[in-house]
Amino acid sequence: MADEDVLNQPEGEATDVDTADEPQLQEQLKEKINVQVEEVGPLRRKLTVAVPRDFVDERLNDQYAELRRDAAVPGFRKGRAPRRLLEKRFGNEVSETLVQQLVSSGFMAAVEKTDLKVIGDPMVWVRKSDSETPTLVDVQEAIEQIKLPSEGDLEFSCEVEIRPEFELPELDNIPLKRPTITITDADVDQQVDRYRAMHGTFEAPEDGIVQKDDILTVDLRMTSGGTELKKEENVRLAARPQLIDGVRLENLGEVLAGSKIGETRTATGTISGDYIKEEFRGKPAEFEIKIREIQRLRLPELNDELAKRLGFEDVAEMRAYVRDNLELGRNEQVRRALAAQVYDYLLSKTNFDVPERLSERQASRLIVRRMLDLYRQGLPPTEVEKHLDELRAGAQADSVRDLKLFFIMEKLAEKIEVDIQEAEINARIAAIAQHQGRRFDRVRDELARDNGLVNIYMQIRDDKIVDQLISKASITDVTPEEAAAETKASGKSSGGKSSAKTAQGSAEGGETAKKPRRTPPKKKAEGEADAT
Q1: H/E/C letters for each residue in 249-274?
Q2: 3-class DSSP string for 23-74
């Protein structure tokens, strides 16, 4: 809105331009716009939309007609202000409103007209100045940058991801092998170490030399072909595989290992296929990393004193508690092993293409879902962060597999209806809070901010769908050794949902089938880090 001293508008009289009825505008645009579709990658399309000048002028005339009818302009009665005065005083506001209407509704009309099954919001190409190279930005930023042309068509281009087309395999009598799981001392040791990790602290190592998995503060410079793309100081990253600005640095831990404070190491990778600057997509990138600070997780000593801090009498009682809970959780471990086989079956029997490189938006959704799954298993924050770093920078095949499962489960959800109650979502949140030793309301608030609640809903939905498939499956009981041998022979990695290690009873935690015999360990004492 223009400044009040310019408008001199009496209180209570609005000059806001009424927004058009969106469905009606969308239908009109569907008939008027010209749309060009260009394939820019698997399941990725570029849409160029042109809104004809006569339609733009028609909408402008409608907007100014409404303004003339409603706006209070000094020296003129309502409905009597001349068009040129309205254009002078309200022109910017009218143009911005019209751009917003035509771009947002024009995109939806283009999707309908081309019958594309679009996933998520588009990214729009904009040029912030005549000298700058066009870049991809989100819709809201694009609307702020796009200007209404004084003549000619209103044209804009955007990139979208589309849903793949495929047929689901036969869902009855899926052949599954149910392992018999035995809890071992190694399983107990692993879970005890996870409790220790939750109460660990980050400290500067005495030798001042970087080891893999250390948490570092660094100065970072990213270049490609001599062009500087990024420069930041005091960046926090871990000495392990990382994803930085869409570049996978899978050997970063090895590159940084052995370096000291003040030393600079160089890592290389390939820029992703959806990088914001198109001319650098697929090009090599070089990262200069200068070490400023080194922090290493130190686990507290396992003794009776630590056990008492965690709410036990001594280490023996702590180990007995852990073993009891792992025994109670065997049913969940077996279910996870069967679910892993279901996912493998769905992947092996369903064939369709996916993007060679996931967009950052889609990848972030997968990251959140994997994070929730890891927390559900009872892993401490340090171990979760390590798994997520490996996922972010992992092999392309892992990302493709996860994305395939996402599409398959979406299609299964259309075929198999499940009922999800709010109490079930809250129970998942409570389990995460318990494993982290944190308050329920704080964990829920964090999940709500990071889109985690939606992902918990989808996680519960997927679990229920898989449980239905398991209930109709053809199941054969096998020993853990047989299950491990078959998994190794087949070369399957189970879509990240479980593993042969789980089938052998590696005690990945999980929800217990019964109430534990005592309360879980207490929250860590003040001063102990969350280790992220």
Answers
A1: ECCHHHHHCCCECCCEEEEEEECCCC
A2: HHHHHHHHHHCEEEEEEEECCEEEEEEEECHHHHHHHHHHHHHHHHHHCCCC
DSSP-derived letter for residue 209 is B
CB 403 within 8 A of CB 354: yes
Q: Distance between terminal CA atoms of the chain?
A: 45
Which residues are CB-neighbours of 294 under 8 A, at least 6 positions away? 204, 205, 208, 209, 210, 214, 215, 216, 261
Residue 281's CB: how many other CB atoms inside 10 A?
17
Neighbour tally for 344: CB within 10 Å: 21
Helix (H) or strand (E) holding 101: helix 83-114
CA quadruple 275, 277, 280, 286: dihedral positive or negative?
Answer: negative
- Enter the tokens of residue 47: 């849409």
Q: Of all helices (H) and strands (E), which one includes residue 299?
A: none
Q: Compute the CA torsion angle 355, 357, 358, 363 (nearest 10 deg).
A: 150
Enclosing H/E stretch for 230? strand 227-238
Amino acid identity of residue 345, one-letter, is: Y
Nearest to 282 by CA among 224, 231, 222: 224
Place of tokens 């809070």: 433
Helices 381-392 and 185-198, axial angle in degrees (round to 10): 100
Which letter does DSSP use for residue 346 in this model?
A: H
Low-confidence ranges of the chain (pLDDT < 50): 1-20, 395, 492-532
The DSSP symbol for 374 reads H
Full-model pTM: 0.58
Q: Which of 64, 67, 66, 148 is nearest to 101 (CA)?
A: 148
Q: How far, in Å, CA of 362 to CA of 365, rounded?
A: 5
Q: Name the residue type at position 359.
A: S
Using only C-alpha atoms, what is the Rg of the chain?
29
Q: What are the tens digits of pLDDT across the range 250-285?
A: 899 999 999 999 999 999 999 987 787 878 988 999
Residues whose CB is less than 8 angstroms from the CB of residue 58 and which lie 6 or more positions away in sequence, other chains included: none
The tally of CA atoms less than 13 A away on the side-chain side of residue 438 is 19
Span 97-139, pLDDT tens digits:
889 999 999 999 999 999 998 887 888 999 877 667 888 888 8
Cβ atoms of residues 325 and 516 within 8 Å: yes
Residues 6+ apart with CB under 8 A from 479: 179, 180
Residue for token pair 């749309």: 35
Contact 524, 315 (CB under 8 A): no
What is the spatial order of strands in the sheet that 154-162 belongs to? Answer: 34-41, 44-51, 154-162, 118-126, 135-138
C-alpha distances (whole Å) from 74 to each of 81, 180, 210 are: 9, 85, 71
DSSP string, 391-420: HHTS-HHHHHHHHHHHHHHHHHHHHS----
Contact 209, 340 (CB under 8 A): no
